[in-house]
Amino acid sequence: MIRVLARRSLDVTYFTRDPARELDGVREGGPGWWLRGGGDPTDPARVAGVLASTARARIVGYDLVVAAPRAVSVLIALDEGRAGGVVAAHRAAVGAAVAYLEDRAVVVRERGGGETRTRAARWSSVVAFTHGVNRHAEPHLHDHVLVGARPEGADVVLDARALVAHASAADALYRATLRSEVARRTGHEVWRSFAGVEHVTGLDEGYRALWPGRHLQRGDKTLWVREDLVDLWRAERRGVVLIGARPAPTRHRGALDEHRFAGAFEGRLEVARRHVVAAWANAAVFGQGGNDVLAAVDALYPELRPGRGVHESTVGVPRARMLDRVLERGARPLEPVALDAWSQRSRSLERSRERSW
């Protein structure tokens, strides 16, 4: 899940002083990169300028922590030759997630005439810092994305509730884009299980156990040099206990898992656009580009397009599911095998309806 951490201080030296040398040679440039704006990302004054706020607000901005799934992070330790492609795929996916948040979650509330209106806004500048390791020296590919609390041209801070409300959809878009981009850039096939866990085809699950990413103690901050870290990872790999790889599903390559999509709305009374976006992105088992996900959702649910912020317009669960049209649209491009399977299922559904009459 994308974590939304409020920042109450303009001190950004935690980011600007960390050269993140663990990714030297596999990351383009240094750790800092601008999604909007420019300047020296190692200059604390320039980076702190991103954190715009108002005189009355305590929160000056947000740190959006976007982390790759464990199996994808492990790739930067196991496949040194294609680690650069993994990092590039991650940054592309971060860009897709941030673009979604800015389009749908960056809003301000304005009061006037006895009414409260929600207005779309945008950040004046956005800077991110890409790191590749956690405090326990394990592969952990992640970005800290810094944004301001006051959008460009606004007199008030953004509605933080909207950032939290849309975080799940942004995370689903990030992961779907990441799965697609890793495959495109490296050839590694990343897929999402029905339980919501990302796997890499052929990657032994023993490596997930070797570098679990979760520990009782937080650990100390260490500035690693890549050569030393690579040597450490190689030594740890020699002691791994292999337990076998999870077999990739035979269906859903280039398609949606209709059961996952429909099940995402279970228990809801109403469904907003953000819920459909998350359901679609998570149901794209082998990934799909963020723009393609959003285009498909807007084509099938035109009444949900205007929705932004917390109070989006909604549809009922039957309308949200509409499996026949969702499967017909699918996750482009579709493979013939997937189309045949869907066609057979559609015919089966039609026969069932005929019998019910």
What does this structure look like?
The protein has helices at residues 13-16, 44-48, 70-78, 83-104, 160-186, 206-210, 226-238, 258-263, 273-283, 290-300, 317-321, 323-329, 336-356, and strands at residues 3-7, 32-36, 61-67, 107-112, 115-120, 126-133, 139-148, 190-192, 198-200, 271-272, 314-315. It is of the alpha+beta class and 357 residues long. A five-stranded antiparallel sheet has the order 1-3-7-6-2, covered by helices on one side. Strands 4-5 form a two-stranded antiparallel sheet. A hairpin with a 5-residue loop joins strand 8 and strand 9 (198-200). Helix 3 packs antiparallel against helix 4 (83-104). Mean pLDDT is 91; it is low at 333-357.
Strand content: 15-25%
Distance between the termini: 44 Å
Mean pLDDT: 91
Helix content: 40-55%
| Order of helix and strand elements from N to C terminus | EHEHEHHEEEEHEEHHHEHHEHHH
* Arrangement of strands in the largest sheet: 1-3-7-6-2
Largest sheet: number of strands, sense, barrel closure? 5 strands, antiparallel
Question: Judging from the principal axes of the Cα atoms, what is the shape?
Answer: flat
Number of domains: 2
Helix count? 13
- Report the C-alpha radius of gyration, rounded: 22 Å
Structural class, from secondary structure content?
alpha+beta
Low-confidence stretches: 333-357
